[in-house]
Each structure stands twice: as C-alpha cells, then as structure tokens.
C-alpha cells in the first residue's frame, strides 16, 4: 500500500462508518465510534480504551463509558453489519464457519472468565470463550456474529452475573445452541450460506446436526471417531412388537437389524471402506508446501437422537499423506451427486475463520478488552467485527476480485477452477448409479445395494447443483 492509498483510507472509513449512524441517538455518542475504530487501526501496542483515549487526547473514562454505559444500540450495529455482508458479498459459493476462540485473562471479573480450555495457550487456563460465525467466499472472509459462552459456574451465581451486567435471562447453554442462534440470526438478516462447516466439537452433537438438517442446510461436519451409523440402511417399522399391543406405535428397527457402528470401526472392518483404496487429493498450497490428503468415501446413514437412521449422508475419511496416523472423519449433508472435491473444499475451509481470529487479535486488539461488563465485551467484539469488515473490503479492493477461488460448484452444474485437484478422475463412482434414490432430494424407486460389494471410489462423484437454504426476507 502506497502513501496515496493510505491517505484515501480515512475518507473511505468515514463514509463506511456513516452506515452505522442510526445505531446512535446522540451525535456526541456517535462520535466515539470513529475514535475507537481508528485506534484499532493504529499501530498502538495495546488497543483498549486507555491507550486509544490517550493517543486521541481524551479521558480514558470517556471510551470506557462508550463501551459499557452510554445508550446506543449494538444489536442494531450487528444487524447492519450482517445486512452489509448479505447485500455486497452474497454468493452461491458461500461457506459459513462455526468456531470458538478464547482470550486469556488474569482476573476474575471479566464476564464468563474461568479456568477452561484455552486454544490461545493450548491448555486449561483462565480465559473467556466466545462462539463465532464466520463467512467466506472466494478470497473474502469475515466474522458476522458472536456470543459469550457463559460457564455453569457463572450461570449458577446470579449476583455475580448482575455485577457483570449479564442479562437475567442469559444462562449457561451448550455451544451448539449458541451456534444455532448465531446462524438463525444471520439468516434472518439476509445472509445465505451455501454450506456450513465446523470441527468435531460441534460435529459430535447429534441434536445439532439434526437441527441443521431440519433447516435444510447443507453442511460438512468433522465428527469424532465415536460417531455412529450404518453403511447399509437398516429397515424401520412401526408395527407393534406383540400382537394386541395397543401402545403407541413408535418407529423402531426391525428385529435382527445390523447394529450401528462407529466410523472408526467401519474404516477397519467394513469392506466398503477397508478394501477401498486411498485416493490422494491436493487440498491447497500452504506455507510449508502442498497440503495433500488421502481420502475414502461411502454413502452413510448417521444414527439420530432416536437411535434410528437419518437421511443418507456422505461419509469420508481423510488422512494426511505426510502423517498417515493423522486421520479425520467427516459427514456431509448434501445431495448424493455432490463431488468429493466440493466436500473436501468445504471441510478444509475452517482456516478462514482461524485467520479472522488471528487478524483481529494481532492487528485490531480483539483480545485486549479489559472491562468487567458483558455489554462492554459484546460491544468491543461488535466494533472489532465492523473494523475487520472494513479491512477485508479494502484488502479485496486492492488485490482485485478473484473469481472461482473456492472451487465450489456454480450454476449449470459446472465446477469452477479451485485449489482441490483429484489425482485420477477417469473412472466413475458406482454410488451415483446405485444410491441416487436414497437422498430426499433425489426421489425415485428404491434399489438395494448388494450387501458385501465394495464401494470403491477411484474418482470424484458426479457433481450436481446443490440447493442452499434460501435467505429469509428482510
């Protein structure tokens, strides 16, 4: 970036921030927003209220009150942020990424702080954890929503919550429940996600995956080795177990049905996976060179919360070529014909949200918050997201638009150029011909797949157009 480009940023920043003017009823309160944002964009070593205020020659308490006490609508700011993203960065190739991040803290007054797993230090540590929803398309990525994870120790101590200005109706919830709230709120503000992806911390929740299926959302979830299901779909019946039994007829597996198995056991014992050759895929070029994973893939029926088979899904197992002992399992809820390349691209997109966390922490002071108010914490993270969106848009403008960077399917069922390249794509997958009828989006008369036949996957699946959830009307 040259001097002229830097000079142009300030009027562009002023015009950008004016889009959030109606979040403030008073002009003097509104005037603190550019002060805070410019402080985050500065080269200050610490970017919290005191050093930002000192650099601007104003009392630190002014910005502290701006975050925690003054009357302005940070919820509306978050809504307008999401509406901007929906209006200017909508795409049929968008990926939503759910993840959490932790900020180490020394004291006991920061809202939600306690000893818990802290990814920033790689151990159990005193920290605050927040759950986030990221958005990525082509070479653009940003954070669109966030919420505090309130530990049970805080939730059960309401006087402590009141001292931190935590609302009375805010209680401890699983992180998956928080993630669903972020997703629903973003959708209601117009953001559409062609895909969602997340790590096994969220993928292990059967109820969470079921909730996304109900919403009609395509996703690729990393799942733990304990994830269970069937490769051959077991039969389900509603017939009473005994003649004359008048109790409610609930769906159940037919007597003698094969038991569900863990995905790890399937890899080791099921012929469809055990005998299937590994296929190498070039995922992307990393800082240390090409990232190559070997993959096996089958059609799979996950076990639901009622112990019955869910709708058919993609199950693929990936191992790192350089570290064969490093194996990951993924479940993809998508049409049967979705190519393996698309599924892998989505699965290995989580680095985008991790990059957002890194940029906001190293450049914008995301983890520099030192207040004791829940409102202050949420406002700090909301403003940081606003600042980060400005930088992301400037970065994209200076680089120039790049089309097709993610390799996801576009309209007319054509693949756009992308980072994932199949090692050998000459042969076709037998699944597309044998199980097309077993996905709800492909209704047809059912045909059974031979029980012991091997489902080899020497090439990618036939690719078709996926159907992202339609954004809610604003």
Would you write up a description of this structure?
The structure is a single chain. By secondary structure, this protein is an alpha+beta fold. Strands 1, 2, 3, 4, 5, 6, 7, 10, 11, 12, 13, 14 and 15 form a 13-stranded mixed sheet that branches. The protein has a two-stranded antiparallel ribbon with strand order 8-9. Helix content is 34%, strand content 20%. The two termini are 37 Å apart. A hairpin with a 4-residue loop joins β2 and β3. The radius of gyration is 25 Å and the shape is globular. α3 crosses α4, α4 crosses α5 and α6 runs parallel beside α16. It has two domains: 245 residues, no CATH class; 121 residues, no CATH class.
Write the layout of secondary structure elements.
Elements: H1 3-17, H2 27-30, H3 32-41, H4 49-56, H5 60-68, H6 74-88, E1 95-104, E2 114-118, E3 123-137, E4 140-148, H7 152-155, H8 158-163, H9 175-188, E5 195-198, H10 200-203, H11 206-214, E6 219-223, E7 228-230, E8 236-237, E9 252-253, E10 261-262, H12 263-269, H13 271-274, E11 279-286, E12 289-302, E13 313-320, E14 327-333, H14 340-347, H15 351-363, H16 374-399, E15 421-422, H17 431-434
Parallel strand pairs: 1-5, 5-6
Antiparallel strand pairs: 1-3, 2-3, 3-4, 6-14, 7-10, 7-12, 8-9, 11-12, 11-15, 12-13, 13-14
Helix pairs in contact: 3-4, 3-16, 4-5, 5-16, 6-16
């Amino acid at each position: 970036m040259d001097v002229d480009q830097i000079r142009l940023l300030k009027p562009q920043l002023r015009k950008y921030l004016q889009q959030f003017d109606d979040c403030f009823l008073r002009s003097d309160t509104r005037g603190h927003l550019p002060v805070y944002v410019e402080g985050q964009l500065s080269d200050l070593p610490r970017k919290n209220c005191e050093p930002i205020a000192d650099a601007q020659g104003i009392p630190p308490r002014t910005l502290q009150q701006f975050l925690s006490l003054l009357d302005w609508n940070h919820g509306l700011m978050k809504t307008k942020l999401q509406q901007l993203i929906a209006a200017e960065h909508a795409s049929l190739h968008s990926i939503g990424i759910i993840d959490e991040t932790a900020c180490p803290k020394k004291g006991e007054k920061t809202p939600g702080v306690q000893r818990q797993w802290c990814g920033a230090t790689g151990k159990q540590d005193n920290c605050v954890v927040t759950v986030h929803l990221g958005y990525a398309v082509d070479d653009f990525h940003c954070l669109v929503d966030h919420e505090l994870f309130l530990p049970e120790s805080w939730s059960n101590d309401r006087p402590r919550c009141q001292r931190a200005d935590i609302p009375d109706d805010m209680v401890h919830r699983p992180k998956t429940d928080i993630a669903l709230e972020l997703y629903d709120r973003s959708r209601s503000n117009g953001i559409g996600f062609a895909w969602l992806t997340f790590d096994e911390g969220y993928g292990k929740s059967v109820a969470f995956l079921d909730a996304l299926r109900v919403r009609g959302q395509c996703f690729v979830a990393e799942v733990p080795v304990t994830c269970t299901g069937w490769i051959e779909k077991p039969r389900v019946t509603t017939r009473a177990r005994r003649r004359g039994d008048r109790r409610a007829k609930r769906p159940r597996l037919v007597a003698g049905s094969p038991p569900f198995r863990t995905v790890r056991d399937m890899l080791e014992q099921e012929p469809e996976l055990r005998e299937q050759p590994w296929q190498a895929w070039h995922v992307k070029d990393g800082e240390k060179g090409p990232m190559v994973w070997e993959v096996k893939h089958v059609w799979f029926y996950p076990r639901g919360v009622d112990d019955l088979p869910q709708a058919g899904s993609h199950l693929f197992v990936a191992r790192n070529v350089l570290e064969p002992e490093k194996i990951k399992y993924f479940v993809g809820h998508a049409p049967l014909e979705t190519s393996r390349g698309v599924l892998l691209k989505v699965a290995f997109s989580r680095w985008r949200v991790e990059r957002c966390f890194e940029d906001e922490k190293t450049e914008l002071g995301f983890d520099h918050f030192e207040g004791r108010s829940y409102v202050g914490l949420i406002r700090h993270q909301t403003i940081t997201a606003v600042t980060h969106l400005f930088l992301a848009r400037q970065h994209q403008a200076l680089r120039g638009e790049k089309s097709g960077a993610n390799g996801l399917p576009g309209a007319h069922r054509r693949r756009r150029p992308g980072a994932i390249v199949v090692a050998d794509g000459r042969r076709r997958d037998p699944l597309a011909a044998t199980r097309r009828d077993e996905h709800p989006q492909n209704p047809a008369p059912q045909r059974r797949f031979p029980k012991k036949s091997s489902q080899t996957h020497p090439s990618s699946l036939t690719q078709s157009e996926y159907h992202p959830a339609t954004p809610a009307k604003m």
